[in-house]
From TrEMBL, chain A:
Residues 1-168 form the FAD-binding PCMH-type domain. Keywords: FAD, Flavoprotein, Oxidoreductase. InterPro entries: CO_DH_flav_C, CO_DH_flav_C_dom_sf, Diverse_Substr_Oxidored, FAD-bd_PCMH, FAD-bd_PCMH-like_sf, FAD-bd_PCMH_sub1, FAD-bd_PCMH_sub2, Mopterin_DH_FAD-bd. The keyword Zinc does not apply. Pfam families: FAD_binding_5. This is Carbon-monoxide dehydrogenase medium subunit. GO terms for molecular function: FAD binding; oxidoreductase activity. SMART domains: CO_deh_flav_C.
TrEMBL record, chain B:
It comes from Hoeflea marina. It comes from the Bacteria. This is Carbon-monoxide dehydrogenase small subunit. GO terms for molecular function: 2 iron, 2 sulfur cluster binding; metal ion binding; oxidoreductase activity. Residues 2-78 form the 2Fe-2S ferredoxin-type domain. PROSITE patterns: 2FE2S_FER_2. It holds the Pfam family Fer2_2. The lineage of its organism: Bacteria, Pseudomonadati, Pseudomonadota, Alphaproteobacteria, Hyphomicrobiales. The keyword Manganese does not apply. Keywords: 2Fe-2S, Iron, Iron-sulfur, Metal-binding, Oxidoreductase.
């Protein structure tokens, strides 16, 4: 790891004030620190967010859910309040990485990094969540802008995620057995207004995306049967040493069906 | 350079290190507690697992400065009064190790999972919970046996105490 300067922020304002072109926010660090160890990242300064009180805590009021950006995967997985309104989100959080990673990794860190195989982007896109930053509210459709790309401006800080509990939701992923990342993961949701959203992670060559053909098929029949006639086009899917685009295309359908079964 | 103070295995410690110093380096090189191991360079193997503020974390994936002010428990802090911790004793009794390199991390992961799950551990849960710890000798069978035995013993001790 190259030398860096550590700062511990105690408020959102302090964190944003410390930001600069060569600095990086440090949330749980479960991606950033390994990346720095490999010398693939060399930020001049690290701004630790784990002690910012305003970014902590989960609040569920009726069907409104607010999760602070510094909330860990373990906290979401164990939250009875979140489980009461959207169990799929808890189940997703419970299968990110491994237990030790889940004690450190945060929802804000995950979505700000927008790894094309991360789990949370699929959930937030399918649940039509809003991403709250230090100066605005960004809809998930706009926020996830491509592979490792988001709508965040330079120095802009994710402080929380807000969403409305869905009528039904489910998530299924085919895990890469070594990295625990999604080789393909699909989050299905029927929102309170009856609309259906299907978001796919791990498979798209440009990061998380919505599967509109499945959304149309599920609008009138929200069950695995409704997908039997659909074949997923592999042309915009990722291919690497782990899986071909065609294999991922098949996985999108299989994981969508499993997610629908999980949604009940 | 940063000044770092923390409580390690119940004792207040402090030292100077670079901001980029990993917690595991600080534990091994500044405090000379070499029971915590480094088995990989990629945050995958779990040989470096310690508890920070009561939670199992990979000390190779956290900076020492991030743990400034925290309570840290390493493998050296588990046994008390010359008696092995029940998880350590179970690993010995059930042959839960061969070369022993992964064992400190395995035991710190096991004590964390037993604490979180109480007496409700079953084999599948133990295997799932070991996702972050790699052993290249045992095939995991005896590690799982040891953790289940320790969980049962700790559960019955807890009941007896109540």
């Amino acid at each position: 790891m190259y030398a860096t300067n550590y700062h511990r922020a105690s408020s959102v304002e302090e964190a944003v004030g410390l930001a600069s072109e060569d600095a990086k926010y440090l949330a749980g660090g479960q991606t950033l620190i390994p990346t720095m160890k490999q010398r693939l990242a060399a930020p001049s300064d690290l701004i630790d967010l784990r002690h910012v009180a305003a970014m902590q805590g989960i609040k569920v009021e009726g069907d409104k859910v607010r999760i602070g950006a510094a909330v860990t995967h373990a906290e979401v997985a164990a939250s009875a309040a979140v489980r009461g309104v959207c169990a799929a989100l808890c189940d997703l959080a419970a299968h990110i990485g491994d237990p030790h990673v889940r004690h450190m990794g945060t929802i804000g860190g995950s979505i700000a990094n927008n790894d094309p195989a991360a789990d949370y982007p699929a959930a937030l896109l399918a649940l039509k969540a809003d991403i709250i930053t230090n100066n605005r509210r960004i809809g998930a459709d706009e926020f996830f802008a491509g592979m490792f790309e988001t709508a965040l401006d330079e120095g802009e800080l994710v402080t929380a995620v807000e969403l409305t509990a869905p009528a039904k939701a489910g998530y299924a992923k085919f895990r890469n057995p070594a990295s625990r990342y999604a080789l393909t993961g699909v989050f299905v949701a029927r929102l309170g207004d009856g609309s259906v959203r299907v978001a796919v992670t791990g498979a798209g060559s440009d990061g998380v995306f919505r599967q509109s053909e499945m959304e149309a098929a599920l609008a009138s029949n929200f069950s695995a049967d409704a997908l039997s006639g659909i074949s997923v086009d592999p042309s915009n899917l990722m291919a690497d040493l782990h899986a071909t685009a065609e294999y991922r295309a098949n996985l999108v359908k299989v994981m969508a069906k499993r997610a629908l079964i999980a949604a009940g | 350079m940063a000044s770092v103070s923390m409580t390690v295995n119940g004792k207040a410690v402090s030292g100077q290190c670079e901001d980029r110093t990993l917690l595991v380096q600080f534990i091994r090189e500044n405090l000379n507690l070499t029971g915590t191991h480094v088995g990989c360079d990629t945050s995958q193997c779990g040989a470096c697992v310690v508890h920070v503020d009561g939670k199992a974390v990979k000390s190779c994936t956290m900076l020492a400065v991030q743990a400034n002010g925290s309570e840290v428990l390493t493998i050296e802090g588990l046994a008390s009064g010359g008696e092995l911790h029940p998880v350590q004793a179970a690993f010995k009794a059930h042959h839960g190790l061969q070369c022993g390199f992964c064992t400190p991390g395995m035991i710190m992961a096991a004590t964390d999972m037993i604490k979180r799950h109480g007496g409700k551990l079953d084999e599948k849960t133990v295997r799932d919970e070991l996702d972050g710890n790699i052993c290249r000798c045992t095939g995991y069978h005896n590690i799982v046996k040891a953790i289940l035995a320790a969980a049962e013993e700790m559960g019955s001790t807890r009941q007896a105490a109540e």
